[in-house]
Amino acid sequence: MILIAFALLLAACRHAPVRDGLGAEVPVGEAALLAAQSAREADLAEADHWRMQGRLAVQAGSDGGSGRIDWQQRGGDYRITLSAPVTRRSWVLESTGGRVTLSGLDGGPRSGSDAEALLAEATGWRLPLQALADWARGARSAGPARIAFAADGLPARIEQFGWTVEYREWLPGAPARPRRVFASEGGASVRLVVEAWGQP
């Protein structure tokens, strides 16, 4: 009886469906890719001190801008510097201990506890900053998400919070990190070209 019960248990495990972040069943081959992605995301979560430098373009309806970005992350704190070479202006969004300050604005710095609301109030750009920190590294943010993979097993697209994030080029490494990312939601879009990943 014990052997029969053990065999039935194995059969049940073998046929138990694997589900994606939205609860839909996925094929067996894709289940392996999801498992590898989850392991990769766990590695990225542990490496919570990082620096990303590159070029950024943001479009929100008829408004937009482009320039250079220097994102330094230290656990829950970060410092994001945006600079526009043409106008020679720069802005710094800094979060320390849950307090956010946006400097470089006409009229002086602005502070608050909600980085996304602060950025939207100052620039009109409504960007999911916390999710962008994950998406920029090729990871899903916390919450329901759909993910599609390229032939090399790396993410090709993530759909989350109404945004579609496309990965168009990757930099080699362990773990691999994106080089070219395009995110869009309605009339808003973010284009990112990473030139270097490193430590803050």
Automatic annotation (TrEMBL):
GO terms for biological process: protein transport. Gene3D superfamilies: Lipoprotein localisation LolA/LolB/LppX (2.50.20.10). InterPro entries: LolA/LolB/LppX (IPR029046), OM_lipoprot_LolB (IPR004565). It is found in: Cell outer membrane. The keyword Chloroplast does not apply. Coiled coil: none annotated. SUPFAM superfamilies: Prokaryotic lipoproteins and lipoprotein localization factors. GO terms for cellular component: cell outer membrane. It is a lipid-anchor. It comes from the Bacteria. Keywords: Cell outer membrane, Chaperone, Lipoprotein, Membrane, Palmitate, Protein transport, Signal, Transport. Monomer. Belongs to the LolB family. This is Outer-membrane lipoprotein LolB.
